[in-house]
Design goal:
alpha+beta, 5 helices, 17 strands, 22% helix, globular
Length: 301
Amino acid sequence: MPAIFVRLALAQENPDTVVRAYRIAGCRFWVDACLPMLEAFREPRLQTKQFSSQVMPKVAVDNMDASAERRAEGWVGGVRQAVRCGQVADGYVIQARALRFFVRDDGKWIELLDHPESNSEMTDLLLGPVLVLALALQRRWCLHGGAVIQQGAAILFLGESGFGKSTIAAWLSAPHSAMQRLADDVVPVAMNGSLQSLPPYPQFNLPVAQQYADSAPIAVEQIYVLEPGSENIPVTHELPAGAAALAVARHTLSARLFPESLLARHLEFCAQVAETTHITALEYPHNQQSLDMLMEIIERD
């Protein structure tokens, strides 16, 4: 299983630091701190004292290339704020206000560089843009969407905030349905001949008890791209390959922070998804009638 190592303790040598293992997006996520939000994904039998010397690189973040800096906005510490990604010799530095993380260029090492003003700000940045970038560097991409499992396959609903992703995933996985909620807001995926969902991933809007915790990859059968509805009922229409690829690119989290070399890989991934996956635009008005009709639409598609 691929691994990502995360050092949050700023004291460089502390042999009593316990390193915990979690399962995130098909990777083993080693962290030298307890992160309550990840408790559903914990592997309690796997832990160690401090990282081995083989995985502890010397991080140098001087001489950042300002010309290659990229910027985006994201929710960090409950506030929407600017997030910056700059390039250094062996990787990247992601910063929100005074809080900085280093991400090695292979995506396998993450290190906290500054004392956080709050734990929530640190957790949001780590499990948001920082982890998304680390996964992308390993060709694992995080899509902004909700998802459900139907008969062993994943159905994704991509859309902007407020377009109904969470509502749809919750409704389709309610007790009256045979579907199971896979994701509420973030869906990690990768191409492995065909598109696969790579659970689990922490969903910020769900309590720990409601997180999907199984780590087996799931084939993606269908992607719906949510659009504002002009009618009072949901309407679907096929997306040509070019429009489908652009939709996947548009709904990839933190893509604005990707360096140019990573953007090239990302565009290649989006084109592959468009060629191999059934992608449909779904005009979705926010009303109960639309929710009632979604099951019929999914069964038809």
